[in-house]
UniProtKB/TrEMBL annotation:
<dbReference type="Pfam" id="PF03422">
    <property type="entry name" value="CBM_6"/>
</dbReference>
<dbReference type="InterPro" id="IPR044993">
    <property type="entry name" value="BXL"/>
</dbReference>
<protein>
    <submittedName>
        <fullName>Glycoside hydrolase family 3 C-terminal domain-containing protein</fullName>
    </submittedName>
</protein>
<dbReference type="Pfam" id="PF00933">
    <property type="entry name" value="Glyco_hydro_3"/>
</dbReference>
<dbReference type="GO" id="GO:0016787">
    <property type="term" value="F:hydrolase activity"/>
</dbReference>
<dbReference type="InterPro" id="IPR036962">
    <property type="entry name" value="Glyco_hydro_3_N_sf"/>
</dbReference>
<dbReference type="InterPro" id="IPR005084">
    <property type="entry name" value="CBM6"/>
</dbReference>
<dbReference type="InterPro" id="IPR036881">
    <property type="entry name" value="Glyco_hydro_3_C_sf"/>
</dbReference>
<dbReference type="InterPro" id="IPR026891">
    <property type="entry name" value="Fn3-like"/>
</dbReference>
<feature type="domain" description="CBM6">
    <location>
        <begin position="828"/>
        <end position="949"/>
    </location>
</feature>
<dbReference type="InterPro" id="IPR008999">
    <property type="entry name" value="Actin-crosslinking"/>
</dbReference>
<dbReference type="InterPro" id="IPR002772">
    <property type="entry name" value="Glyco_hydro_3_C"/>
</dbReference>
<dbReference type="Pfam" id="PF01915">
    <property type="entry name" value="Glyco_hydro_3_C"/>
</dbReference>
<dbReference type="InterPro" id="IPR006584">
    <property type="entry name" value="Cellulose-bd_IV"/>
</dbReference>
<dbReference type="InterPro" id="IPR013783">
    <property type="entry name" value="Ig-like_fold"/>
</dbReference>
<keyword id="KW-0732">Signal</keyword>
<dbReference type="Pfam" id="PF14310">
    <property type="entry name" value="Fn3-like"/>
</dbReference>
Amino acid sequence: MTAQPPPFRDPRASVEVRVADLLGRLTPAERIAMLHQYTPAIERLGIPAFRTGQEALHGVAWMGRATVFPQAVGLGATWNDELVRRVGEAAGREVRAMRAHDERVGLNVWAPTVNLLRHPLWGRNEEGYAEDPHLTAALATAYTRGLRGDHPVYWRTAPVLKHWLAHNHERDRVTASTSVRARVLHEYELPAFRGPVRAGAVSGVMPAYNLVNGRPNHLSPLLADELRTWTELPLVICSDAAAPSNIAGLQGYLPSHAEGLAAALRAGVDSFTDDNEDSAPTVERLTAALERGLITQEDIDVAAARLLGMRFRLGQFDPDDDPHIKDAAFDTPEHQELALTAAEQAVVLLKNNGLLPLRSGTRLAVVGLLANEVKLDWYSGSLLRRTSPLAGLRAHPGVASVTFAEGADQVRLRTERGWVHAHAAPGAEDGEPTATAALDPALLAGRTDLPPLTVGPEAEATTFALIDWGDGVLTLRAPDGRYLSVADDGLVRASADQPGGWVVQETFALEPHGGGHLLRHRGTGNHVSVAADGLKVAEEGDVFFLETVERGQDAVAAAAAGADVVIVVAGNDPHINGRETEDRTTLALPPQQDRLWRAAHAANENTVLVLTSAYPYAVRDADAALPALLWTAHGGQAAGTALARVLCGDVSPAGRLPQTWYADDAELPGMLDYDLIGSRTTYLYYDGTPLYPFGHGLSYTTFDYTALTASADGTELTAEVTVANTGGTASDEVVQLYARATDPSVPRPHRSLIAHRRVRLAPGESRELSFTVPLAEALGFFDVAHSRWTVEPGAYAVQAGASSRDIRRTATLTVAGEPAGPRPVRDAGLAAAAFDETSGTELVDTAREAGDAVSAGADGVGELTFRACDFGTGTTTVDLRAARAEAGEATVELHIPGTGCRATLRVPSTGDRYAYTTVTAELPGAPAGVHDLCLTLHGPVRVDRLTFT
């Protein structure tokens, strides 16, 4: 008689039954081991090993060659949900196909990034979709649906959203705390996550490195109080790399690692990504926490059950029944065509005075530091194929001829001991740079099989291409196309196909010294010196003298003078000056690239500037001077072909900006100023005139908007609009629907995107579009006075247009709503964090586990304003709950404007920031009824709440 398989082996059983059965068969030690990123196999049960974490932000990353789609911000620029879903599906199918040949490829996919592009200097701008929560949520939902697949039982991959929460800075990203007021949290930050989670295609979420309101994100009570209330699916929380150790380490939030990991587990973290493949420290810390009573066996079992549930849904235990094994596909013609389509749809036409599209037979000069490049980023796969802008335009049948000038300065380097000479790699030939690099970890680890640079007589001097990427960061490239790089042995070689790696070893800086320059290697921080075995990095460096053989702008001007039209391709290298771990310092185009477009334009007025970048630039002068500008994110393997097809008119551009392009650095808030309401930033609140607004993008045709109507019932808002192509070119149009409150009681956005649709229209074609949006999402806001989401009664404008500043039609409607009413402070007290306005304060943690308090900021003085406080029939005293770790006392002044009522509350030292005391003051002249209330905080003090009696 054949033995029946255990229930966890029965594919007909529910996931819950299978998880419970398998969990019951595991020892306590095996359950704890499951909580590390690298879960070992359990041979006695035939359970294979498993790991969380496979990067697939815009195609499969880090595992070798794969289809490379445009960067996430480029996918954001398509404003095309269905296209992004198809990209996610292709990435998921390639994950499956690659896993069949390489077990290192994981099915738990850490993508997409849904952090909002609040600040354009964020180093990881390339990873997000948009500055708007609606657009971000819609595209993230689409991408995760593609990754997950539509099978009712088995998931193609298990997507994990990154990074919870309010993560939009790289400097001090582990130790800095961001203040996120309640309205910004509920109206801006949470919706980007809530949309895809509610859609049911998300398996989990990854907390961010930073702290929010003084508390590490990996301990966020919002994981339980918000995130896990949005779905019945048992979401898996995967920590970011090394973040569990940060809690007691760099953040110093708890005194020991056992306490740190225990707190994270209690908060809801299930999978601990720490110490790479070495699970021993995590297992030891969790075991110690269990033995000390910091966590319970139930805490461990709940996390292990969530992880097992994900594995069952991925079909790990049912390979014969999993349809995605047969559905796997890699580098198919469909994927190649999709990569081209995505790159085409991501191109944004910023300005056009009629020069574009190019006429057939045009003689082009294609110039610029990115003209012959296909740049990758940290989360790219390796290229299977590539087409640069230069190659794409050379191959286009409508272009008569192409002249190329990169525009890099050609220089020679000399020391007191001789001229620098680079030895070509075997088989390499001089010529145009090739830019064929992939993110191959073996390559980026540093090659030592090539000869190092040496010094010798002038006749042996090598002419290098010098590119200044801004902020004094430069790369040097030898004539064979390889970049100077430093390997582990410290020798300088022309060995890298491209700059790259977690620590970039191909960037240098020139530091004036002794009539010449020291050449500092940024990867090690050391200087280049002349050693017996060649150029080498050391603490003490030699003085180098730079001789310019040819200025890049001169070569560009010469090429431009003989062409009908000049295409200048400028932008960034995603591994340099703006990337993970490094924010940008300015919106300005690097000076060398600024000189190139000016030189081209001086030689030929028909100059087009193409910005290929992971983020916005402030190019006000270029916008004023040039007839045409375009922007595209780094577009992946088909970037050059896509750009050529747009420039030559095969495709009418229809990409739209997913974030505001400001005209100057002065218009930006501080990197840590997350209060977009107070700082008046993003298109939602920005009061100035942007260089290019959110949603902006031009076309080769024209569109007309008519017949906009809007209506609302108790739960939904419905709008209809007719859009017509009134020009002579077939094109997509991105129809954007916005809403705004006409007379709000609190500061509300100028307008908020509530719906969008990208539609294809032939010349003369019109289409009636209908949108249905939940009324609360479209018109509501978070009422801090009553801690609830609400829709106010009154008039609202529903607007349809081509951008946030190009509104074509407006319809009005009136909704009954629910009046907010005054704050019931006499009856319910007043939470300090529930302010309406603030200056000079920061939000901090009331306790380590939960709660938000307010303290004065760095200047030691902070102000809070609370509108419409209802004091009932009057009050005589106020109680303040506050804490002060420092010696001495702090003061909190209370003021009710227009009444003469003032009080000073003196908070003594409580010895600890979490030790609270209650102080009381009389309120002479306190009024009855509804009034505003102001608090002024002097000195280090944590204010939790006020009670009136």
